[in-house]
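Hey, I'm writing a tutorial for new members on how sequence and structure tokens pair up, and I'd like a real worked example in the thread rather than a made-up one. If someone can provide the structure for the chain below, I'll link this post from the tutorial.
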Amino acid sequence: VLLAVIFEWGIALHGVHSDRDRYLPDTVRVAEGNATLRRKIARQTIKDYVLFPALSGKRFGRTLLANLTANLLRNLWAYVVIFCGHFPDGAEKFTAGVLNEETRGEWYLRQILGAANFKAGPVLAFASGNLCYQIEHHLFPELPSNRYAQIAVRVRDICDKYDLPYTTGSIVRQYLLTLRTIHKLALPDELLTATSDDAPETASERKFAGRSGAVGGLRTALQRGARRRRRRLAA
């Protein structure tokens, strides 16, 4: 809940941590990144909650409340949209080791497997900044977002051709799966029945160990695994 409320700063902190991992052991550059974030937070806070309300004169309180409300709603909506694009079942997670000697083709595959879409009409697509097409956003980050719907048709055709998963669903379903993932991963291992290799929330290629003679691609293999898991749970 706290992350959703202050989501803009959570995203900023994520960027700082990414830079820290990249810059270490250069502690000077790490300190500069931390200082830059603190200055950014201070400027934004003063602008939204001191300067602009002060310019309103007697309406200081109303402007302050309006800015608080607008920022809160923006943070909550951005949290839902971005989390639904990265944490539902089917949005795979990767270790840093996969980047070693990764080919261009493997990079594109990782973008498809590491993201998830949610179904949206024109209004919801516009309201989400077209990030309902998170897969396409990962594949083509510099493409204007209003073109994602067009390119999505071709991306799905490629996934069908090579039997690759194309993860999508309603925004409600994707958000509920996201919440389930977050809550389950917060539990101690001893309370979970699945392992990190075969759980629906996080999996690895080890889930296919010992299985031979399979026909089809990754999507077919994942569907078979899901059916086996459901049968095992029902038994």
